[in-house]
Automatic annotation (TrEMBL):
Residues the record lists as binding Mg(2+): 68
Active site: 68 (proton acceptor)
Binding site for substrate: 7-12, 69, 159-162, 182, 187-188
InterPro entries (alphabetical): dITP/XTP_pyrophosphatase, ITPase-like_fam, RdgB/HAM1
Gene that this polypeptide is encoded by: rdgB
Annotated organism of origin: Erythrobacter rubeus
Superkingdom of origin: Bacteria
Keyword line: Hydrolase, Magnesium, Metal-binding, Nucleotide metabolism, Nucleotide-binding
Cofactor: Mg(2+)
Phylogenetic lineage: Bacteria, Pseudomonadati, Pseudomonadota, Alphaproteobacteria, Sphingomonadales
Name by which UniProt lists this protein: dITP/XTP pyrophosphatase
Similarity-based family: Belongs to the HAM1 NTPase family.
Length: 202
């Protein structure tokens, strides 16, 4: 069958398409259908994922898959969490020559540095996948990837906060490791494994 991928984030679209590739689904991006971006008014990843999936299913008349994800930093009480994308827009290191990198993750790092150099840097990426069908049915799958934050950013692959996140048990950031390997251990891979077991019966 075909599945609308209800994201306007090209990094996510690329990962979700790669993860779905073995299952013979035809992926249609929300962007290519010109679907609107609904306001993410939920207070949890699951609420926001469902808002996005339902909106795309209603507008397209097709099954739709949405991803709501973010970073929870232990020393910040789990923030930025559902506000991870909002925090990424802050320009904490304005005026720094490396600001293209720093713009994406400077606020989290700035807050950690204010807490002092011995602050616990553990964090986890979270991903909630929601599938909605035009008849109103839906399913939700949650995934996590524990790790820690590093500074300065390292690596060119992936997207978003990947250059500052080291998954547990590795030394490289998500932006330095082979992307096939990221797809075997990431928060998105964890949620996806549950989706596949439930939807594709393997
Ligand atoms: P859509 O809502 O259109 O899907 P978005 O970018 O607004 O796109 P979210 O609201 O779910 O998506 O925000 C997710 C944030 O978490 C965003 O800042 C991402 O950069 C970051 N993020 C999520 N998964 C990530 C990953 O695998 N690697 C790095 N950063 C990630």
């Amino acid at each position: 069958g075909s599945l609308v991928i209800a994201t306007h984030n090209s990094g996510k679209l690329k990962e979700i398409s790669a993860l779905l590739d073995p299952y013979g689904m035809k992926c249609i991006s929300a962007g290519s259908l010109g679907l609107p971006e609904p306001p993410e008014t939920g207070t949890t990843f699951a609420e926001n994922a469902l808002i996005k999936a339902r909106s795309a299913a209603e507008a397209s008349g097709l099954a739709a898959l949405a991803d709501d994800s973010g970073l929870g930093v232990d020393a910040l009480g789990g923030r930025p969490g559902v506000y991870t994308a909002d925090w990424a827009e802050r320009q904490w290191f304005e005026g720094d020559p490396g600001r293209d990198w720093y713009m994406a993750m400077g606020k989290v790092e700035g807050m950690l540095q204010q807490l002092g150099s011995d602050t616990d840097r553990s964090a986890a990426f979270h991903c909630v996948l929601a599938i909605a069908w035009p008849d109103g049915e839906h399913a939700i799958y949650e995934g996590q990837c524990p790790g820690s934050l590093t500074w300065p950013p390292r690596g060119e692959m992936g997207f978003g906060y990947d250059p500052v996140f080291i998954p547990n048990g590795r030394e490289q950031t998500f932006a330095e490791i082979d992307q096939a390997e990221k797809h075997s251990i990431s928060h998105r891979a964890d949620a996806f494994a549950k989706l596949v077991a439930d939807q594709f019966g393997s």
